[in-house]
Specification:
This protein is mainly alpha-helical and about 160 residues long. Helices cover about 70% and strands about 0% of the residues. It has a single domain, classed as Up-down Bundle (Methane Monooxygenase Hydroxylase, Chain G, domain 1).
């Protein structure tokens, strides 16, 4: 493989990662808006849009690692940063800037995903508490069977459904 084809591959993979990360970030922001509303109709659509992007990012990440590993680059953020800085100086490319952009977008995606996961977790907890009340169980009440596993069997509670 000559240097030009390596540079082209490096540029294409990195630019594709940046573009897909921006698309994922946009979807994560939309997901947050949907999760924050009472209308969750679009949530499944957003999830189906995110899935292929995540798969593509994963595939590009593996291709990126193989390409850099074959050049003897240390596969860490610092190692890649040093390599791209030197590569930019020699080849007059803008790969270092794209790499920084990719890292920023990845961190933003991670933060948004954590927030969205927290919203989902809180909604799940609220739903579980509501179901417990409907079953006649106090929300803080946890029941366990003789094996120590949680049980949905009520001993003395009166279900709202039976009331």
């Amino acid at each position: 493989m000559n240097e030009l084809s390596f540079q082209e591959q490096l540029t294409r993979i990195l630019n594709a990662q940046v573009q897909l990360s921006a698309e994922l970030l946009s979807l994560l922001k939309q997901e947050y808006e949907v999760l924050s509303s009472t209308n969750l109709d679009n949530l499944e659509n957003l999830a189906s849009q995110k899935k292929p992007i995540v798969v593509d990012l994963d595939n590009l990440g593996r291709a990126w690692e193989i390409l850099l590993k074959n050049k003897g680059v240390e596969l860490s953020a610092d190692g890649i940063g040093r390599f791209l800085n030197e590569f930019d100086n020699v080849n007059n490319t803008q790969l270092q800037a794209a790499w920084i952009s990719l890292q920023e977008k990845a961190k933003e995606c991670q933060k948004k995903n954590i927030v969205n996961g927290s919203v989902i977790s809180m909604r799940h907890q609220t739903t579980q508490q509501t179901l417990s009340l409907l079953r006649g169980q106090r929300p803080e009440e946890r029941l366990y069977n003789h094996y120590g596993a949680e049980s949905n069997t009520l001993s003395n509670g009166k279900s709202l459904a039976k009331a």
